[in-house]
Design goal:
By secondary structure, the chain is of the alpha/beta class. The chain folds into 2 domains: 122 residues, D-Maltodextrin-Binding Protein, domain 2, CATH 3.40.190; 224 residues, 3-Layer(aba) Sandwich (D-Maltodextrin-Binding Protein, domain 2). Helix content is 36%, strand content 17%. The strands form 4 sheets. The protein has a 6-stranded mixed beta sheet with strand order 1-8-7-9-6-10, with helices on both faces. Helix 6 links the parallel strand 7 and strand 8.
Amino acid sequence: MYAARRIRPRTQVPLFTAVVVAFAFFAGCSSSKPASTATTQPASSASAVAVSSPTGNCTHYDDIRVMIFAGLLNNMLTFVAKDAGFFHKNCLNATLVPVASGPAGISQVLSGDLQFSDSSFDNVILARAKGLAIRVVTGESTGVAYALTARKSLPLPDLSKGYPAVMKNLVGKKIGVFGLGTGSELFVRALFQGAGLSPDSATYIGVGSVPTQLTALQNGSVDAIMTADPGDQIAVQEGFGQVVVNLATGEGPSEVRTMGGTFQVKVASEAYLKSHADVARRFVEAYREANAWVHDPANLDALARIMVARAGVATTVPNAEQLNRQLAQLWAGHAGVDVSRASVDAWEKFETHFGNLKSPVSFSDVVWAGAPTAP
């Protein structure tokens, strides 16, 4: 059996240039930069999108720095809260900061460089198990977003058989993940283990978020990537990628299919929630309002414009306009602020089953008391 290797890139991979998001995928998306110097969302992006913004009665605006993933569609509620004016309505002056991985964002929340970070729920539950003083503040996306996507030129003789048979074709390969130790790596490991193979069957390489993942896949630095929409869509449309296992459509181990309900969440430090509880409450309210706006069919055209500016595929992609609208509609269906108790329980069982979590973590120990919740 191949021994797993875990490689950190020595330098940031250049941005994918053949297919770019309208905002150029944030050239500063590497987590090697501290948040204080990270490239932040250009102010021009919001002004380029014509949206009728709500108004609030504010005499003071609190500055907050909010993590996003460059080019990731399941940050939809954050983009809408910013560009449709819901942060502003709730007296918040939000700067969106791209960071390459959930654990990197959690570190920056704890250091005070960010007020709110972004993460899939697995990173949060494992961080709490290690005693890190963070809490989930609100949900953002309900769908498991990952799709294991390989180079088009990579031989996959068992691809037509689907999961789990196809996983043996990836033994000994180099697989790019958002960052080492992140949820994306844990999910690849779970795919191997669920297929009866060692989770150490591949070499894992931290390649950052969607833009740099695509570059690494196209130039052959890796054989496959664990990416998220629109990464897999772009790779397939441009002809250099093929989806191997699509977790978003229910493929993979049975444990994955039970986790829908809470996937992407926003996180704050316990210290910040204690000292800035009112800011956190207004932050949650901005997400509630953004969520209601996203789910109103009357706003689909405006939503599509926001998402094209923030995380859309470029016009060089075949059928780009239709694809962008379909992706906006799809991920609007995945948007949700409630943190599901059943989903959290499923996450805990998933992490325990695959050996990542040694002891239970209670719902109240992970989720802030002021967070919106659901059964």
